[in-house]
């Protein structure tokens, strides 16, 4: 009886090991397919040239080696942008609770460079995460940066005071340490969901193939 039990236990152990191996292989294959699809999207590829609130030139390659959460918006946005930046800030705070996680840089790129100069960005971003870095530039530089992420931007008509609203895509982009797009989050995503997703990407990170 003991011998039969030992044999049955051994068989069960082999079967479990085989199942775990097959599951691991399937997960690797799924991850590889996802990475290939991300590469095919071509979002965020290439560099951009902007400047931060201190006037320092910034390029996308400056953030290589760090994960990046990137949001395009504008400081005169009445409600959507503040809500999204609050959510982004909260997600970063949740991730910062684990010091073992790799570095993460939150970025805000204005889509309204006419009004959002360095000083305006600095004032606006004081209400959000202290490491949230604001980027602006010339109209052409901002337009080129937004185009690389296929962000829709359209300034509305001006009112009697010369004020206007900028319609734009509402998405937060996740870039990997290699600077390549990994995921994006819309308005329906909560800060907790964003944090969980970013953490999952960090835990299973695999560089995209060239």
Automatic annotation (TrEMBL):
Belongs to the SCO1/2 family. InterPro entries: SCO1/SenC, Thioredoxin-like_sf, Thioredoxin_domain. It comes from the Eukaryota. It is a single-pass membrane protein. Its main location: mitochondrion. Disulfide bonds join 77-81. Keywords: Copper, Disulfide bond, Metal-binding. GO terms for cellular component: mitochondrial inner membrane. Residues 39-203 form the Thioredoxin domain. The gene is Sco2. It is found in: Mitochondrion inner membrane. GO terms for molecular function: metal ion binding. Cu cation binds at residues 77, 81, 168. Pfam families: SCO1-SenC. The lineage of its organism: Eukaryota, Metazoa, Chordata, Craniata, Vertebrata. This is SCO2 protein. The keyword Disulfide bond applies. GO terms for biological process: mitochondrial respiratory chain complex IV assembly.
């Amino acid at each position: 009886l003991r011998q039969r039990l030992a044999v049955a236990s051994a068989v069960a152990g082999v079967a479990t090991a085989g199942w775990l191996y097959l599951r691991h292989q399937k997960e690797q294959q799924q991850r590889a397919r996802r990475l290939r699809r991300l590469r095919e999207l071509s979002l965020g590829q290439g560099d951009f040239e902007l400047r931060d609130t201190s006037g320092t030139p910034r390029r996308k390659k400056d953030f290589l080696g760090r994960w990046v959460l990137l949001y395009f918006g504008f400081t005169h946005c009445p409600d959507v942008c503040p809500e999204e930046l609050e959510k982004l800030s909260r997600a970063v705070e949740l991730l910062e609770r684990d010091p073992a996680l790799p570095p993460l840089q939150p970025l805000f790129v204005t889509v309204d460079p006419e009004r959002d100069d360095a000083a305006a960005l600095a004032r606006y971003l004081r209400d959000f995460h202290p490491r949230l870095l604001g980027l602006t530039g010339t109209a052409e530089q901002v337009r080129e940066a937004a185009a690389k992420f296929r962000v829709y931007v359209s300034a509305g008509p001006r009112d009697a005071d010369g004020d206007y609203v900028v319609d734009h895509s509402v998405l937060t982009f996740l870039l990997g340490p290699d600077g390549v797009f990994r995921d994006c989050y819309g308005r329906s995503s909560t800060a907790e969901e964003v944090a969980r997703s970013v953490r999952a990407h960090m835990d299973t990170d695999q560089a995209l193939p060239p």
